[in-house]
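Structure (tokenized):
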């Protein structure tokens, strides 16, 4: 216990949601430790966010209607009210006044429009908004007297005491900075999960590597409620390659068109809003046209692409993509709309445990997330959770944490990589864009066996790779179970069991 660390608020993760929680708690005078697997901003999903951050402008009711419509009947109106009600103040206070984010616009802000938005309301910086938010945010926290930052540190497990979360075990010592062979306990008055997404569960994802669903898995294993896990959003326009990059929805918002291999524009046949239809509709349409014709390209000729999106033009050039002939695109795993169930201040079902950002199910997104609401949700819930967590009490006295063992030989080289390949194969084949009951049953069987194999090793060995694999297997099983138990298609959860014409025009809405 000599290595135990105490803090008032422990934040696990350093994206916009974790940073928001840390800032709000520090402003309340709490001591804050931010522990993150990331070693630089680019390792966090926020840094990869392209399109921007939605705002209310002068019409909050319009934004609310768009969020509820995109959520396909599954969003929580109370949660949407909380988001919309705090949006303007949070953006102005944190992003504009505190961080000075240089949003585009020479005289006032240059608001963009994206898919399923009824108005232009997206604040952005080129197509690299997250990058311009996260760097200044991390620097601001690093200079704050109440905040300590610990990089390249993974949480292995939560510490619990009769239903109360009292901290977490990390694989790096906050006092010395040394790597730990077994977990180092950090005891906290409140713990905030801000661990990001689940991209590593699929072969193609817009998430950074290391997105293994850690927060969802640790919370579930500790007994917290997890809901809406079946709603995994696939972005319709990622570069069609084994190593994809996201082609922002803002490009379609500025007039880019989707064409199949025959050169035909097809989206008007699927939805009245064509390229600006909800993401789930566009993603299934792109998949159907790729299957039917062999390829889908994003035609950017209607806009001054290189001038309006220089970062994306550079990404195309780096990959040898001639964007003037269209960018090959395909659906790609993007965002988990469900997760650890929380209320409007980020509280989970376990005492003194909060969750914010992509690992949390706030109820805002329902069955399908509206474009450019993830940064806003992360910021609003981060601020709300951080302030509440700071008021829940100061650091507890250290107690006896669970013991992690590391007594057996190291795992063979490539062990985790091979298991991850197996995991991704079953998620891609059976828990992807289109699902059937039979496929989901097969997936659950494979994932149960995989989790059992990983658990048998984790009982006697402690390593980040192994625990990330455990977390990914747990979350994969949660997604497959939730999808199997929900026979109704909604948003990005599409059951094709009974569909006679699955991809007919207007399918899915």
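Design, position by position:
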């Amino acid at each position: 216990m000599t290595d135990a660390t105490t803090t008032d608020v422990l934040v696990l993760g350093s994206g916009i949601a974790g940073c928001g929680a840390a800032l709000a708690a520090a402003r309340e005078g709490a001591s804050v430790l931010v522990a993150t697997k990331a070693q630089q901003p680019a390792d966090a999903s926020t840094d990869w966010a392209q399109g921007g951050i939605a705002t209310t402008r002068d019409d909050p009711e319009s934004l609310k209607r768009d969020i509820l419509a995109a959520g396909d009947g599954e969003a929580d109106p109370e949660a949407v009210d909380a988001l919309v009600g705090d949006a303007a103040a949070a953006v102005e206070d944190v992003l504009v006044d505190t961080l000075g984010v240089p949003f585009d616009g020479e005289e006032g802000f240059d608001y963009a429009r994206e898919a399923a938005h009824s108005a232009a309301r997206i604040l952005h910086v080129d197509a690299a908004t997250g990058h311009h938010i996260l760097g200044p945010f991390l620097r601001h926290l690093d200079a704050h007297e109440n905040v300590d930052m610990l990089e390249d540190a993974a949480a292995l497990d939560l510490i619990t005491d009769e239903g109360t979360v009292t901290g977490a075990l990390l694989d790096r010592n906050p006092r010395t900075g040394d790597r730990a062979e077994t977990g180092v306990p950090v005891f906290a008055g409140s713990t905030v999960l801000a661990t990001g997404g689940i991209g590593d569960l699929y072969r193609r994802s817009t998430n950074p590597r290391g997105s293994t669903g850690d927060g969802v898995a640790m919370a579930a294993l500790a007994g917290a409620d997890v809901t809406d896990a079946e709603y995994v959003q696939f972005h319709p326009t990622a570069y069609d390659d084994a190593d994809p990059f996201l082609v922002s929805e803002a490009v379609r918002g500025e007039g880019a068109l989707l064409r199949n291999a025959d050169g035909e524009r097809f989206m008007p046949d699927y939805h009245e809003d064509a390229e600006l239809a909800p993401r789930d509709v566009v993603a299934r349409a792109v998949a159907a046209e790729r299957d039917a014709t062999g390829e889908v390209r994003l035609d950017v000729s209607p806009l001054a692409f290189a001038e309006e999106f220089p970062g994306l033009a550079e990404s195309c050039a780096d990959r040898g993509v001639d964007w003037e002939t269209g960018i090959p695109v395909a659906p790609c795993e993007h965002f988990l709309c469900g997760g650890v169930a929380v209320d409007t201040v980020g509280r989970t079902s376990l005492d003194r445990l909060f969750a914010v950002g992509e690992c949390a199910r706030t109820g805002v997104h329902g069955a399908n997330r509206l474009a450019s609401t993830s940064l806003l949700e992360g910021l609003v819930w981060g601020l709300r959770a951080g302030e509440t967590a700071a008021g829940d009490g100061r650091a507890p006295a250290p107690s006896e944490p669970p013991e992690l063992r590391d007594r057996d030989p190291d795992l063979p080289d490539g062990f985790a990589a091979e298991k991850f390949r197996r995991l991704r194969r079953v998620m891609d084949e059976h828990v992807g864009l289109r699902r059937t009951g039979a496929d989901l049953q097969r997936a659950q069987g494979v994932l149960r066996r995989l989790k059992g194999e990983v658990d048998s090793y984790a009982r006697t060995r402690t390593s980040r790779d192994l625990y990330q694999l455990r977390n990914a297997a747990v979350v994969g099983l949660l997604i497959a179970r939730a999808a199997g138990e929900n026979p109704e298609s909604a948003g990005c959860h599409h059951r094709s069991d009974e569909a006679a014409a699955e991809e007919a025009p207007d399918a899915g809405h």
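Reviewer-requested clarification: Residues 220 and 226 are 7 Å apart (CA to CA). DSSP finds 14 helices and 16 strands in the chain.
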